[in-house]
């Protein structure tokens, strides 16, 4: 049985190097005895050091525990080694993992929802369920988990063999015959598991479901426990406080204010569209010539409003800006696309449009002068 299973409290130990396998930019090291938790069952491995060198990953091959380190670790066969497991990381993983046991048990017993997958990440933990979980169920399950944390149920770990499992109501059947490690939470959950766990539910402190999303016919539920949950709430509070400062209302008024701001934005947007159209008509009225080619400082929308109004008055307009933006409004008089294609052959132009309207960008705005003289030629039907 792997050492971490029987002595999960050991986070510092002395041993010797058993074997070293050099790879391209990594080295794999096995030890005579290691208390590191190797990745598996949805839980990432422990982090820590061997003689001060960071352990990047720990995994098993059969009964062997391998520690992955960066190349040139300086570790050689039979060398004495001090292994240090990052206790904070171990504790954090144990908290999230125990929370998963509890959440899974509550969902199953209280709401008939089965957990089909589990993943413990560095930011959050997820479980996947066999069916979609409604918001009310999530709220109720979250409350139930926090109530159980409040009851501070003990978490006990013991070993059984197949023939003395007795009547233990295991959450999931196991294929193992011997050395079955049972993790029991009060009378709430009995689970065969090789992960790391806390010894009492009070260590979870707080449980929070962050979000849920549809996943393969069920739900993927994101949750946090312990310090992660407190950190999450603090971050949320900071965000809310920032928003509050920005829009100057109390927290309970915040959602209404945001809705109102969006409505106002839509109203202003509509108003700007209307005013732009009216301004376009007014500006178009100012041009007396049949063909206008002019540098302007209008935004795109206003260029369009003026140009389209010019076309409506059977006039042709070409507007351009110093930044390289150009609009050709030919209406029915000319084929704007054809002119644009001939310009594209000579200039670095991007864009396109219809027979009566083309918009583009000249990638080298300094060439606008010579481009415009070509436009004149095209409008006058000269060869270009
Ligand atoms: Zn477990």
Automatic annotation (TrEMBL):
GO terms for biological process: tRNA aminoacylation. It comes from the Bacteria. Keywords: Metal-binding, Zinc. Coiled coil: none annotated. Residues 180-222 form the Threonyl/alanyl tRNA synthetase SAD domain. The keyword Zinc applies. SMART domains: tRNA_SAD (SM00863). This is Alanyl-tRNA editing protein. InterPro entries: Alanyl-tRNA_Editing_Enzymes, Thr/Ala-tRNA-synth_IIc_edit, Transl_B-barrel_sf, tRNA_SAD. It comes from Proteiniclasticum sediminis. It holds the Pfam family tRNA_SAD.
């Amino acid at each position: 049985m792997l050492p971490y299973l029987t002595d999960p409290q050991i986070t510092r130990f002395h041993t010797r190097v058993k074997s070293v396998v050099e790879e391209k930019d990594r080295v794999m090291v096995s030890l005579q005895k290691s208390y590191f938790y190797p990745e598996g069952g949805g839980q990432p491995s422990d982090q820590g050091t061997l003689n001060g060198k960071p352990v990047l990953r720990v995994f098993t091959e059969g009964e062997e525990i391998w520690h992955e380190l960066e190349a040139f670790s300086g570790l050689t066969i039979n060398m004495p080694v001090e292994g240090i497991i990052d206790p904070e990381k171990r504790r954090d993983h144990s908290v999230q993992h125990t929370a998963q046991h509890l959440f899974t048990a509550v969902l199953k017993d209280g709401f008939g929802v089965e957990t089909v997958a589990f993943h413990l990440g560095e930011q959050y933990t997820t479980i996947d369920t066999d069916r979609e979980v409604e918001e009310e169920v999530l709220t109720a399950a979250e409350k139930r988990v926090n109530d159980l944390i409040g009851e501070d149920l003990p978490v006990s770990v013991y070993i059984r063999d197949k023939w003395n499992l007795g009547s233990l109501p295991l959450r999931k059947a196991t294929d193992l015959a011997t050395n079955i490690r049972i993790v029991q939470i009060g009378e709430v959950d009995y689970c065969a598991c090789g992960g790391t766990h806390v010894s009492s539910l009070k260590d979870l402190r707080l449980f929070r479901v962050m979000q849920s999303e549809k996943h393969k016919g069920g739900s993927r539920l994101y949750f946090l426990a312990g310090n992660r949950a407190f950190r999450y709430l603090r971050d949320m509070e900071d965000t809310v406080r920032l928003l509050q400062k920005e829009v100057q209302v109390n927290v309970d008024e915040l959602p209404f204010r945001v809705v109102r701001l969006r409505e106002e934005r839509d109203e202003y947007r509509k108003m700007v569209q209307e005013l732009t159209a009216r301004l376009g008509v007014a500006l178009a009225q100012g041009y007396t010539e049949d063909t206008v080619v002019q540098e302007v400082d209008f935004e795109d929308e206003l260029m369009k409003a003026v140009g389209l109004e010019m076309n409506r008055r059977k006039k042709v307009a070409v507007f351009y800006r110093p930044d390289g933006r150009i609009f050709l409004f030919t209406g029915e008089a000319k084929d704007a696309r054809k002119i644009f294609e001939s310009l594209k052959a000579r200039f670095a132009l991007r864009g396109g449009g219809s027979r009566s309207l083309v918009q583009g960008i000249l990638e080298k705005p300094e060439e606008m002068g010579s481009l415009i003289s070509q436009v004149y030629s095209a409008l006058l039907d000269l060869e270009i």
